[in-house]
Design a protein that fits this description.
binds 1,3-dihydroxyacetonephosphate; about 350 residues; four-stranded parallel β-sheet; Rossmann fold; binds iron/sulfur cluster; 16 helices; 13 strands; 3 domains
C-alpha cells in the first residue's frame, strides 16, 4: 500500500470498523485513493447520494446529500466533470442545471422504478384531460417528463411546492405513495384519474379532489409493511422508526418520523434514543451507523435498491479513467426541464 492509500485506509477504518470487514476496507481504500488522485488531476467533482454503499460514501464524494441538496450542489459546485454517484435521473438533473459541464454516471444500469413508471405522452394526456391544472413532478423522473411539468419537487419540499400554486387542484406525478402521504399530511383529497373516468362537467370548476395522482411506486419502499414495524417494536420496545415518504401511508403512519434521506440522517444525529429502524435503502443505515457509533441501527438488509447498488468504487474509477458514461439531454428538452427544476429550487 502507498502512503496515500494507507492514509485513506486509516480514515475508512476509523469510520467503518463496525460496518465492514477489514479486508474489504483495505480493498476499498486502495480504489478510493486512486479515484481521489485522478479526481484532483482532472479537476473533477464527485456528488454522492446518501444511498451509496459505505466504502464509497465515506471516501470519494466531495459532497453527499439527498436529491434536493444534490440538485442545488449540481448547480453550484466547482469541478468538471461532475461524476454523479447516484441514479440516472439525478445525473440528468445535474446536466439540466450545468449544461456546460461534462456529467458522468459510473453505470448505465442505475435506473429507478419511479422514473420508469411514466412517459412524456402520459403527462401530455393528463394535461389534455385537465386543462389549466398545474403539473408537479417528483425529481425521480427523466428529463422529458420534467420538460412537460410546471415544477419539480423532492420528498423534502413536496408540500411546499404544491402549496406554491394558488389553484384548487394539482396533478402530482408519478409516486402514488408520496402523493398519498402529502394528501394525508395536508388534508387534501386525492384521486387517480387512471382508475375511474371523470365526467367532463365534473373536471372543472367544482372538483371535490385537490390532488390527481399516478400509480408509480418505488420498488424498494413498497416492500416495507406495518407488520415489519410491529414485529420490530415487539422485539425492541424502545426503537424509533423512521420511514421515507415513498413508503405507504400506513407504514408512514405507524412510524415515528418521516422525511427525506437527509432529514432522517439529521433526525438520528439529533435524537437521544439508543436504537433506530430506518425504512429506506439499507446502505443508508450503514452510513448512519458509521457516523453515530453510540447509536444502534436495526437493518432490514434484504431491502436494497438494485439501481443505486450499481454504483461501485471500481465503476467510479473507470468512469474517470474512460470519461464514461456521458449524460446528454437534448437542448430543447433541457431548457423546458430547467424551468421546472429552477422553479423548485426557488421554493424553500
Ligand atoms: P431523497 O430525496 O430523500 O434523497 O430520496 C431519493 C430517493 O431515490 C429515495 O428513494
Ligand atoms: Fe428509485 Fe426507489 Fe431506488 Fe430511490 S430507492 S432510486 S426511488 S428505485
Amino acid at each position: 500500500m502507498t502512503d496515500d492509500a494507507l492514509q485513506t485506509y486509516d480514515l475508512l477504518r476509523e469510520k467503518l470498523h463496525d460496518v465492514l470487514p477489514d479486508f474489504e476496507i483495505r480493498a476499498k481504500a486502495e480504489l478510493a485513493c486512486r479515484i481521489n488522485q485522478l479526481k484532483s488531476d482532472l479537476g473533477a467533482v464527485i456528488l454522492g447520494h446518501n444511498y451509496m454503499e459505505p466504502g464509497l460514501y465515506h471516501s470519494v464524494p466531495d459532497f453527499t446529500g439527498d436529491s434536493l441538496e444534490l440538485s442545488r450542489l449540481a448547480a453550484t459546485a466547482d469541478g468538471d466533470p461532475i461524476v454523479f454517484c447516484g441514479v440516472r435521473f439525478m445525473a440528468e438533473t445535474a446536466k439540466i442545471l450545468s449544461p456546460e459541464k461534462t456529467v458522468l454516471i459510473p453505470s448505465l444500469e442505475a435506473g429507478c422504478s419511479l422514473a420508469a413508471s411514466i412517459t412524456a405522452e402520459d403527462v401530455r394526456e393528463l394535461r389534455e384531460r385537465f386543462p389549466g391544472v398545474p403539473v408537479v413532478t417528483y425529481v425521480n423522473t427523466y428529463a422529458d417528463i420534467k420538460a412537460e411539468s410546471d415544477v419539480c419537487c423532492t420528498s423534502s419540499n413536496a408540500l411546499a411546492v404544491i402549496e406554491s400554486f394558488n389553484t384548487e387542484t394539482v396533478i402530482f406525478l408519478p409516486d402514488e405513495y408520496l402523493a398519498r402521504n402529502v394528501a394525508r399530511e395536508s388534508g387534501k383529497h386525492i384521486i387517480f384519474p387512471t382508475d375511474r373516468p371523470i365526467a367532463k362537467e365534473k373536471q372543472d370548476p367544482h372538483m371535490d379532489y385537490q390532488l390527481l395522482g399516478w400509480h408509480g411506486k418505488c420498488e424498494v419502499h413498497e416492500k416495507f409493511n406495518v407488520e415489519d414495524i410491529e414485529n420490530v417494536r415487539r422485539q425492541f420496545p424502545d426503537v424509533v422508526v423512521l420511514a421515507h415518504p415513498e413508503c405507504s401511508p400506513e407504514v408512514v403512519e405507524a412510524s415515528d418520523f418521516s422525511g427525506s434521506t437527509s432529514a432522517m440522517i439529521r433526525f438520528v444525529e439529533q435524537a437521544r434514543s439508543p436504537r433506530y429502524l430506518l425504512l429506506t435503502e439499507c446502505s443508508m443505515a450503514d452510513n448512519v451507523a458509521a457516523e453515530n457509533p453510540d447509536k444502534e441501527m436495526l437493518r432490514l438488509c434484504s431491502v436494497r435498491c438494485p439501481h443505486m447498488n450499481q454504483i461501485t468504487l471500481q465503476d467510479t474509477l473507470d468512469s474517470l479513467l474512460q470519461n464514461r458514461y456521458v449524460i446528454d439531454v437534448p437542448e430543447e428538452i433541457r431548457l423546458k426541464a430547467k424551468r421546472a427544476v429552477d422553479r423548485m429550487l426557488e421554493i424553500h
